[in-house]
Amino acid sequence: MGLLDILLGRTKPAPPDLDQLFGLPSAAVTLEAAAGLRPTGQGAVCFATVEGAAFEQTHREVQALLDADTDRTGPPVELSKDAYGYSWLVSRRAPDQLPELVNDLHAVNSAMEVNGFGPQLLCSLVGFADGEAAGGTGRRLALVYLYKRGTFYPFAPLPDRPHQRDNALELQLKATLANDLRVEQDLSRWFPLWGAPGL
After folding, report:
1. What's phi and psi for 153, nearest 5 deg?
2. What whole-number distance in Å separates Cα of residue 119 and Cα of residue 113?
3. Residue 192 CA from chain centroid, whole number
4. What ranges do the domains of the chain cover?
């Protein structure tokens, strides 16, 4: 940061720190103890849609890398687009394979960074639920990693009301997860991810 930035009060954004993703398994233990939320085994990386041969090659490499994992359960990694035009690379694992899922998300982000697509990366998420079949309420939650901020926030859509969030739960988890993850303090950056794959 230069002198002019200091004088004008501009701040430099925090650089992405993908190693923050490895805090998710300990956060999962905290979530289960505090709110009864368990990993669903689903996660995804969101990025601005990119066209061209270089991106297609990167996508094929990432998909081949993740699909080669012999411990994978469920369908292979898939690429999808949401209603807003963003692309998602979705990974599915068994619910007890959260460390492997985090490795998948880290690998996708790292491969895109290395191949020059870091500016297109937006966020990564890991899904959690309270186990409706086991007497839960059907609550769902995503822990969202903001790539450009290097921070996390909880996103909890209400199960019975479309496009509404459980703000009370999100704020409760902000405090609960403070020792496990670098939580985004600017609530205006807690973007809703309606219909996100992996949630």
Report:
1. -150, 155
2. 8
3. 12
4. 16-189
**What is the reported pLDDT for 115?**
85
The Cα 89–Cα 80 span in angstroms is: 7
Secondary structure E strands in 20-108: 38-48, 78-81, 86-92
Q: In this structure, are residues 50 and 44 in contact, taking their beta carbons and an 8 Å threshold?
A: no
Q: In sequence order, which residues have a C-beta less than 8 Å from that of residue 40 and are 6 or more positions away?
A: 95, 127, 128, 129, 140
- Look at residues 73, 77, 78, 124 and name the one whose alpha carbon lies nearest to residue 97: 73
3-class SS letters over 118-181:
HHHEEEEEEEEECCHHHCCCCCEEEEEEECCCCEEEEECECCCCCCCECHHHHHHHHHHCCCCC
Token pair 């899904």 is found at 127
Specify the pTM. 0.85
Question: Exposed/middle/buried for 2, CB within 10 Å: 0-12, 13-18, 19+?
Answer: exposed
133 confidence band (pLDDT: 50, 70, 90): very low
- Length in residues, the chain: 199
- Paired tokens of 10: 């501009």
**pLDDT at position 100 over 90:** yes
